[in-house]
Amino acid sequence: MDWLFTHQTLRRCATALVLPAALVAAVAVAAAPPSAAVPAVEPLIGAAGSVAGLAGIELPATYGPETAIVVLGYGLLPDGTMRAELGNRLHAALIQAYMSPASPVIVTGGNPRNGVTEAQVMADWLNIRGVARHRLHAETEAGSTVQNAEFSARMMEALGATKAVLITSADHMRRALDNFLAAGIPVVATMTPDVAPLWAQPYGTENPAGR
C-alpha cells in the first residue's frame, strides 16, 4: 500500500510539472505567425498527451483551423470586472486553446459595463495568459445566448471555420447548444469548467503576489 501511494503521488507530481511546462512551450510557439506555429507545436501537444495518459488525465481533443473555440460571456460587475463564473469559463477555454493552437478563439458577449464589454475583458484575460492576439476574435454585440450563436456564426464564416467547440457553464450548456445548432453551427465538442482538467484552474490562476 505504501509503494502504491508513493507511485501514484510521484506520477501526479510529474504530471503537475511536465504537462504545464509542455503547454507553456506550446503557447510560446503558437504566438509566432500562424504559418510557423502548427508544425512545431504538434510534438509538444503529443508529449503533453503522453504524460497525461500515464497519469490517467483526460485532455481535451486537438482541433485545427477549421474548428473555432467559442467561449460564451457572462455578465460583468458594474465596474467592468469579471464575475467568478466568467473566470471559470475562461480557465476551461485556456486549456482548449493550449491543446488546439491552430484554432481561432471567438469570445462572444456585449452588455458593456463601465465602458467595456464581456468579450473585450475575455480577450484580454486570455491574451495575458499566452493566447496570441492573432487567434482572438472578440464579438462585442451579443446580448443573449441566441445572439451569441447568430453573431458567432457570422464571425466563423468570415474566418473560414466550419465547426465549433462550445465553452460555457454546465447549467447553461443545453440552451447554448440548442441555440448554436439552430444557428447552423456544427458543434463537435463542448467543455465546461466542471470537466476541464483538475490542474487547469491553479495553473491559469493569476498570482496575486506578482501584481
Largest sheet: 5 strands, parallel
Instruction: Please give the radius of gyration in angstroms.
Output: 17 Å
Care to count the β-strands? Answer: 5
The helix/strand series, from N terminus to C terminus, equals: HHEHEHEHEHEH
Q: How are the strands of the largest sheet arranged?
A: 3-2-1-4-5
Describe the structure in your own words:
This protein has seven helices and five strands, in the order ααβαβαβαβαβα. A five-stranded parallel sheet has the order 3-2-1-4-5, with helices on both faces. The longest helix has 29 residues, at 2-30. Mean pLDDT is 79; it is low at 1-18 and 201-211. Helix 1 packs antiparallel against helix 2 and helix 5 (145-159) crosses helix 6 (170-182). With 211 residues, the chain is α/β, with parallel strands linked by helices. Helix 3 links the parallel strand 1 and strand 2. The chain is 53% helix and 11% strand.
